[in-house]
Amino acid sequence: MKVKAQRKITFWEAMGVILFLIASLIGTLSFFGGDPHMPLLASGVVASIVAVRAGYKWEVIEEGILETIKMAMQSVLILMVIGCIIGTWILSGVVPTMIFYGLKIISPGIFLVATCLICSIVSIATGSSWTTAGTVGIALLGVGTGLGIPPKIIAGAIISGAYFGDKMSPLSDTTNLAPAMAGAKLFDHIKHMIYTTGPSLIISLVLFGILGIKYAGKELDVASINLLLDTLGGKFTINPLLLLPPILVILMVVFKVPALPGLIGGTVLGGIFAAIFQGAGMSAIIEAAHYGYVSETGVEAIDNLLTRGGLSSMMWTVSLIIIALSFGGIMEKTGMLQVIAEKILRLAHSTGSIVLATFFTCIFCNLATGDQYLSLVIPGRMYKDVFAEKGLAPKNLSRCLEDFGTITSPLVPWNTCGAFMTTALGIHPFVYLPYAFLNLINPMISIFYGYTGITMEKLPPSEQNQSPKEI
């Protein structure tokens, strides 16, 4: 049997797959009320057909799928464990205790600023935006709702703070991956990000402060807050010692306990505290870890907030991630992403246009592959030599990868990060997107620096004449 020769997939073939993805997503989400899973699965089938027609064997396509899924498997495992943590921390009273004390301490006027700062600190300490949003974030969502602040604005503050910390923490996987892809040193990369991420946080805090003024002058609904406090106090044993599990999880990560064992430790602590403080039996603890906690207080605000968590609650997100990664793996392995990126690169000549090209490529990878890791890996591979040929230090590229790839990932509903935030916070990315100020401002500042040359550091003269491979 004659084997068809493998050829390079053309730009328009690759764009045909992308256009099919966009059309099927819009049709399914807007007109048929479906989820992103089927459009992504169908787009993977279309991408496979295009690849086979170009001479790619199924074995190669399948290898691309498995390689990409493997790259993000640690995140999938972390996602499932965080589901267990949420369930046991609600059952144990950890989350209700944080909400209870938060309602007593934090005033509406400073709440959004405080939320952003708290999430920033926790995320720097843990190196994980997911852990921050799935634990402290849920508690802050409850506090803010009790204070009469719309959940979509609270979610924007949570995500802004969580991603600031995620970017700036040396413990973060993306903070380590970006310089590895660009050929920069870790702490050079972190220091260089201060120029873009620092101003972004300051502007975001100012905007959250301005929004907070609206709620500061608003008379508190004392009766509603007292109802929440009485309901939490009646349903759970509230004790300051219940704040220990989140503190211990943060300390475990700070002392470099690997993420998975640290989070499993947090789940175990939740179970132990559930038994000690709430008198929960083993069956209830297992049920909360597996299926999540179901609140039946009769107070709608409390029940909506605390009915969540569990391993099973993450399966919708896990299936979406695996399907999105499968599609991304096909696109990457068969060179479809590369051929589209090459077209973009032909238009990039100045430093500013190269930075802008990196922005579009990272956004494209977040949209097309559904994974923030690929939004760092693929543009990192593509633009490493381009930045070096322009005499730009590698830390410029690593900063761009995070400013464009990491920071925009939670704004895409079918991306691993967007899907997680939807599941953990119960708010769709398109709803909180206008209020995720840091995630919107950071890319704009980075592009501005690219065109003005501000903070765009050059390679030392001794390295500018070397080939990119030698640097």
Features:
disordered C terminus, 75% helix, 471 residues, globular, single chain, mainly alpha
Description:
- The chain has 2 domains: 35-53 and 63-72 and 315-470, no CATH class; 86-310, no CATH class.
- α5 (94-105) packs antiparallel against α11 (222-235).
- It is globular.
- The longest helix has 31 residues, at 186-216.
- It has 471 residues and is an all-alpha fold.
- It has 24 helices and no strands.
- The N and C termini lie far apart (47 Å).
What value does the Rg take, in angstroms?
23 Å
Point out poorly predicted stretches. Answer: 467-471
What percent of residues are in strands?
A: under 5%
> What is the string of SSEs from the N terminus onward?
HHHHHHHHHHHHHHHHHHHHHHHH
Tell me, briefly, the overall form: globular
Query: What is the percent of helical residues?
Result: over 70%
How many helix segments?
A: 24
Our count of domains comes out at: 2
| Major β-sheet annotation | none
Q: Look at the helices and sheets and give the structural class.
A: mainly alpha
How far apart are the termini? 47 Å
- Described by its quaternary structure, the protein is single chain
Provide the residue-averaged pLDDT. 84
The total count of strands amounts to 0
